[in-house]
Amino acid sequence: MAITLTNDALEVRVAPERGADIVQLIDRTTGTPVLAESPTGRVTSTGPFTGDSMANWLNGYPGGWQLLAPNAGPEREHDGVRQGFHGEAALARWTVLERDAASCELETSLLTAPLHLHRKVALDGAELSVVDTITNLSPDPTSTRLVQHPAFGSPFLDGDSFLVASAHTLLTDADAPGTLAPADASGPPDSLIAAGPMPRSIRLPAPGSGASLFAALTDFESPEATFYSPNRGFGIRVAWDARVFPHAWLWMEANAGSGWPWFRRLYAIAVEPANVLPGAGAVDGRLRGTSGVEILPGEHITTSTTLTRLALPALN
Description:
The protein has 2 helices and 24 strands. The protein has a single domain (3-311), classed as Beta-galactosidase, Chain A, domain 5. The model has no long low-confidence stretch (mean pLDDT 94). By secondary structure, it is mainly β. It has helices at 53-58, 189-192, and strands at 3-6, 10-15, 21-27, 32-33, 65-68, 76-78, 81-83, 95-99, 103-109, 115-124, 127-136, 142-144, 147-152, 162-172, 186-187, 201-203, 212-229, 234-239, 247-254, 267-274, 282-283, 286-287, 293-295, 300-311.
């Protein structure tokens, strides 16, 4: 059963039974849900019903915000095991350790990597913080890919919304970049995508536009990105730990995919703090799809990611 946390500014729903996902975040001032809602969240098949780990991961995917570990992206062999699409953490059942009106703590252990995961979710004023601790339980070093996967959607975002980020470089996917930019391109974000109304901003596609993008932002001056919604009157800043996440995947799906898995039913825009670049090979002298970060025996990584409600800036 989902956990609901509230304070005067925000309401958040957490799903211990599936990945400790942040299923939805609601701005209480306007009543606006800010995270994307996926039609796959309504699927009730018990699965696994195919041999495809992507289909199994999407079975019940609600949208919202996931932790991807120990894999992110396509399934692959790692340390003698086949790690599925987007990893195991977002499919695992998590145990609730503590909870009160505005916070909860959860934990789980993984099968496809010797990792113990601990997550604290807390509201403080207009900020939602998620602190993740990843511990290596093995006497040997292990490596893991890590990605935070918060996806934003309608009615918060629309065709007048824009994204501000201090990343100097956008790297588009080599194989499936989408409709908004060419494959394997590298350059300032606002040189590859339509510029927004503020410095270092890009415009976001409208629901139903059929636009799409898969890319990565990197070379950040500050590890944060802010979605602004002029029609809703506020913004949401995503901020993260650059020491753990030097990049951020950028995914835009504006009812673009006519076939499986979305059948033109999903509108989602995501900035995803990541410790690896997506894909394989290299672009602009950078390796894609590396094995991630190594964690020594008994050691751990702790990282904080926040979503903060901001006032809308003055626009010319």
